Amino acid sequence: MRTLLRIGAPLILPWWIVIPAITWLVYELRLERDLERLEQQTVESMAQANDIIVDSIRQLWLDSRMITRVAATQLGNPAATEGQSVLASVMNDFMQTHPRYTQARLLDTGCKERIRFDRRGDLILQATEKDLQDKSDRYYCRETLSVQADQAYLSPLDLNVERGEIVLPHEPTLRIGTRVFGPDGEALGLIVLNFNAGDILATFSRSGGGQMSLLNDEGYWLASQDPADSFGFMLERPDRRISLTQPDLWQAMTNSSAVAGHVKTSESLWLYRRLPAVQVSTTLKGPTWYIAGHLDPAKRDALVQEQAWQHVLLGGLALMVVTALAAMLTQRDARQARTSAALAAANIRLRESLERLESSLDERVRSEKLASLGLLVAGVAHELNTPLGGAMLTSTQLEDELRTLEQAYAAGLRQSDIQRHIERSQEGLQLLHRNLDRAGRLISRFKGVASDRATSERSRFTLRETVDDILALIHSETKHSPIRVTVDVDESIVMDSYPGPLGQVIQNLVQNAFRHGFRNGATGTIVITARRAGDEVTLTVEDDGGGIPQGAQARIWDPFFTTARSSGGTGLGLHLSQQLVGNVLGGKLELAHSAPGEGTCMRLTMPCTAPEHVTEEASTGAT
Questions:
Q1: Whole-angstrom distance between the N-terminal and C-terminal Cα of the chain?
Q2: How far is CA 400 from CA 42, 100, 114, 193, 408, in A?
């Protein structure tokens, strides 16, 4: 026993120091990474909540501007005797088509309601003359009276109040107010829209996973993890605000000049974003809100425990393995057995390596096929950029034309404005149609080629169309090249064969000519020729490039042989093409001639009607 301890101690003691140290370091690094991931999730949730609120306010602002323009048009025209009735009809239609609005009102300059529409479930009700109210005591009316013609007032987020009572069930409400001015600048009244913010708060709560809150600029909760905290300023709960429960956090949030930041407290890590109304528009006068989120302590504790247990188990297992190995090393009688076991294991690994090497060729062939299709996808994506970019530019111009027409309508529409808009719209639509038609044709070509390669189905097709499709789909790779491609293929050649594998062979031959025949910016020509003789077709791909070195010509069909490995060549293109031609197309692919400086000619001979029986390898030839 003493001998075992004397021999084993120097082997095992360093590992009992190193393994716990490494385990602890890995634990700290992984825990830090996972905590950063949790923090990033919270940041992303806060950004989503911010976008939800900003988008809602922006829509509210745009809707109020639209109603205000209609009101100015109808009320500011002395000749329009039915202006108020028309405005009421527009407001009714607006309420019908915008279910998130609970109220739409026109008030006079003294804040007395002239028109009011209320939402009651699915019904839109217009208030009668006796039900119209005086809102001069409401803060949002006084604030709206102070805005200019191009401004709007956005109220704080609070609970709806009717006739001095908070509406039950609670209706979280945002109000936006604008002033209506006549053509002479005379104030005609106010437009006030009530927006149901319940959906915003519900979506906000869901996006935060229960760990995010919304606060107003006084530190009161608007959306909180504890529903009892919400709207404490209206529900006689003045103590329910973050400025009292966590003053340090609130002070850090309000004193910071940054839009977003984080504050670490004794309990958790808090993150916040400040959301002022001017984020939507500088002409919008309104409140500031704060989005606050923190890491869920339960999730953090669970993560710490999970990582701790994992690393304790792994570290313990590693120590057990090392201890066992050290004990084995100290056993003289086990040396021969260990050596034999090691040799046996080495033999097994060698056999497995040999089997993997034998199967690697098949795997690399499959990879080459996928890479070939991937190049087609990349080429199509590149080609689609041009027509789609033109279409997007045209659609933007059409939107500008529509806005111009709206401005002309507001200023007084003329026949020349309508005619100019029609002409420009027709031109834009024609350009949009041409670009989309071009993109559609390109996608149709790619769908045909990709479908053929994905299924390797047999079909009747025209050889010239297959060649044209392949050249079109690799156009992005060849269009900036100084090399010219010429096609001399009889359009009457019809094949009963496999267009997918044939297209892949043609693609490989053309791309080989581009990549290997012309180097260092050399110019030249690639000619694709096809002739039919009886039931056979001979297709050649010939270039006038640098040719194949004499010593390499005998090896070009060998798998993994390439003279361009440094630039990404795999050496499988010609090998795969020869296999597809022989096993699928029933033909023969050979080097017709090649000489240094005189170019290369590859010849493909195949029957017009492919063989009926396809081997298992051939059936997956277009995978």
A1: 64
A2: 38, 29, 36, 28, 12
